[in-house]
Amino acid sequence: MQVAVIGAGYVGLIQAVGLATIGHDVALAEADPAKVAKIRAGEPPIYEQGLAELLSGAVDSGSLTVFQSNADAVALADIVFLALPTPPLPDGSADVSILDKVVDELEPVLRPGTVLAIKSTVPVGTVARYLEFLGDRFFVVSNPEFLREGRAVADFLNPDRIVIGARRHDGAEKMVELYRPLDAPVLVTDPVSAEMVKYASNGYLAARVTYANSIANVCEAVGADVRDVLLGMGYDQRIGFSFLRPGPGYGGSCFPKDTRALAHIASEAGYPFTLMENVIAVNDAQHVRILDKVRSAAGSLQGATIGLWGLAFKAGTDDVRESPAAWLARRLVLEGASVQAFDPHARLDDVAMRGSALEAATGADVLLLATEWPEFARVNLRVLAGVMKGKVVVDARNLLDPVGVRSVGLEYVGVGR
User: Fold this and answer.
1) N or C: which terminal CB in the chain sees fewer CB atoms within 10 Å?
2) Is the backbone of residue 32 left (phi > 0), alpha (psi -120 to 50) or beta?
3) Residues known to be catalytic
4) Fold of 199-417
5) Spans of all domains in the chain
6) Tens-place pLDDT, residues 300-339
7) Taking Cα atoms as reference points, which of 208, 201, 370 lies closest to residue 282?
8) Interatomic CA distance for residues 302 and 298, integer angstroms
9) Is the pTM above the cut of 0.90?
């Protein structure tokens, strides 16, 4: 099929490269000229495992073409994906102004019968609103994304499910045909239900993360080891192991935004979603709990040197949006600490960066491990103990072996250990 993708952000770029990889002709539209130049050269503007190879192949083969003009990109398209930012407003609702502007721009130039597929995470009722505006000249469908940063390419090529929300059967059929090369269950439903699937999924996963953190905090209070507790839980087939890893709290571009939006959607509909509101509050408190561990280890943050391992919100990505590690870095600086950080791929302009994990730990009064990059677990602990000024390692991801850390004369502080 001829496909257009509007927006070369995280979701749009993966969508475009993925569709080109499975055999479609894709036109990708992006307003940022710097991004356009990189993508045309086959260089992804984000770090994602496996993306560089697929992008380079798609560009070289001609199956992916990049435009700065939205109108030029959609000229031949059978299906147009909108993968544009919907940032949170102060009340927690999603700001769809960028999406609205592009729909207004595209309406005069789309060919009759084109499918307009909403890939962005949008408020419930967005497809209905666009159908009312556009009439029956086009198909408007919801097609939410379920990509995990760090595994997004694999998730696109091997999805758990594909969700299509459409009012008209013929519009849904075109979407089903588009994804036919992928071996995955396809749920065709109404647009409102499809829009809710994304929020419901992310809200539930965020709740699992928060539950694991809460159990870890209880384990600290009673003297249990959370790793064994969650292992004992995970073997139960009704529960499983996914998203039961304690840490500094969830972050990234989806969970914080989508949990707040879900709570707002429920409130606007007259249902006070107390459970989700508490998930958000407990997650925020988890950030502070890790900060307290570092403060306690340092005695005072004023004038202390903190080595920081990790800035991305999780391993496998360079994304620092709503990252607990980035939040911790900034709060530490705000409270008078000198922070020296290392992350294999992520950067923060307002934090001093170092070239390696050991360099970041050199001279540190306290070392804080805030992102679970596997290479941090491979650092020579004896060398680490030799370069640090202080003795405390705060492992906010429970990545290191406490026995190994203590064996070299360092103190280990984990989460629920």
Assistant:
1) N
2) beta
3) 254
4) Rossmann fold (3.40.50)
5) 2-189, 199-417
6) 999 999 999 999 999 999 999 999 999 999 999 999 999 9
7) 208
8) 9
9) yes
